[in-house]
TrEMBL record:
GO terms for molecular function: protein-lysine N-methyltransferase activity. Keywords: Methyltransferase, Transferase. It comes from the Bacteria. This is Methyltransferase. Pfam families: PrmA. SUPFAM superfamilies: S-adenosyl-L-methionine-dependent methyltransferases. It comes from Rhizobium freirei PRF 81. GO terms for biological process: methylation. InterPro entries: Ribosomal_L11_MeTrfase_PrmA, SAM-dependent_MTases_sf. PANTHER family: ELECTRON TRANSFER FLAVOPROTEIN BETA SUBUNIT LYSINE METHYLTRANSFERASE.
Length: 225
């Protein structure tokens, strides 16, 4: 897997910015993982001022879906050990980091945001794991050469959820296992999912202090839609 999207972002500068301005914090309920996380004094606006293409800094937070999926993997190393894993819509890289910690053979973390690629590199190093960060929209490609795809909180917009769900169907049809972590957002294709586990975790989208039930699901492409 390789970078498919072009980016003019100065990743060295961004890495330096993140390292300097986003404090390293433990992840709630997952003491094994620490991440660079935006705080009130991080000044993310300075990144936006430098770059008219700067989008929402999803990579600077952990999301409910990624939190539950990371916990699930850490609780069940047997689901991942020795396997090739893709963390799709990786953001900070939290899910890929969990997969690497429990012994995945290879971990890819794909995101369409070049700032996420910078954050994933830093967060992987911080947690002493090897992850190949890929700047690409893999959902428009053929199924990748992995054994399992982990999707943390990527179904947050209708058109995106539709594209991702179609891609996951194609992957599942090729025998790739798919796990989804999601706080029951509106576009979750619930009829095609089997609930494996639930945890109550903070959900970024509803404010830092809020907690809600979030599920880990197996994607069952042969279930009725
Ligand atoms: C809500 S964040 C979730 C991040 C992380 N998985 C978590 O749960 O903490 C969604 C991430 O998906 C990325 N994304 C959006 N569309 C994508 C696509 N088509 N392919 C890969 N990543 C995508 C965004 O840039 C963002 O970093």
């Amino acid at each position: 897997m390789e970078h498919r999207l072009k980016s003019s972002v100065d990743l060295d500068w961004v890495r330096q910015f993140i390292a300097t301005n986003l404090p390293i914090l433990p992840v709630p309920g997952i003491p094994q993982i620490r991440l660079h996380k935006a705080g009130p004094r991080s000044g993310l606006r300075r990144l936006a001022e430098r770059d008219p293409q700067f989008g929402s800094p999803y990579w600077a937070h952990h999301w409910g879906g990624g939190l539950v999926l990371a916990r699930y993997l850490l609780d069940r190393p047997e689901a991942i050990a020795g396997r090739r894993v893709l963390d799709l819509g990786a953001g900070s890289g939290i899910v890929g980091i969990a997969a690497a910690k429990v012994g995945a053979r290879e971990v890819y973390a794909a995101d369409v945001d070049p700032y996420a690629i910078a954050a994933i590199g830093l967060n992987a190093a911080l947690n002493e794991v090897a992850i190949k960060a890929v700047l690409a929209d893999l959902t428009t490609d053929e199924p990748p050469a992995v054994d399992i795809i982990c999707v943390g909180d990527l179904l947050y917009e209708e058109a995106l959820a539709k594209g991702v769900t179609g891609f996951l169907h194609r992957c599942a049809a090729q025998g790739i296992e798919v796990l989804i972590g999601d706080p029951w957002r509106a576009y979750l294709p619930a009829s095609q999912l089997r609930l494996l586990s639930e945890y109550t975790v903070p959900d970024f989208g509803e404010g830092a202090a809020s907690s809600r039930r979030s599920g880990v699901f197996a994607f069952e492409s042969n279930m009725s839609s």
